[in-house]
Amino acid sequence: MERRKFFKNILVAGGTLALMPSFSFAADKPRRGEFAMSMSDAQKAITSGKKAVSSDKVKLTVPNIAENGKVVPVKVFIDHPMEEGNYISSINVLTSKNGNSRCARVFLNPMNGEAYFSTRIKLGGTQDVVAIAETNKGEYLMSAKPVKVTIGGCG
Q: Are 60 and 131 in contact (CB under 8 A)?
């Protein structure tokens, strides 16, 4: 009985050692989700290829310097009416250098009263945070701000 346990343990240890190199290489690969995409690809997907216009109506609030990239507060307010037939239908938050640039997307309707969204995002390093707002008429308004990260959040 002891001999069987001994051989079983040897086989388990050998199998584990054989798999160890593949575990270390898997850790070196950047993690990307199934739907990960670059900033330009994400903008094209959101706007269906239309150009997003920079606007001071989109008020993006992010810290200039984030001490910790794991938790960066983001607030987006759009100075736009929220009435039937003329409202903001979605707000998107993107980052320029994260593995997946899309951070958040919220859908709105006139019953929301105002076009406002607040969240916290992860930033893997110093980069731009971009907010894109879509009107119900198919227009895209945007604002971008740089954020300097002192401690990385995605790595």
A: yes
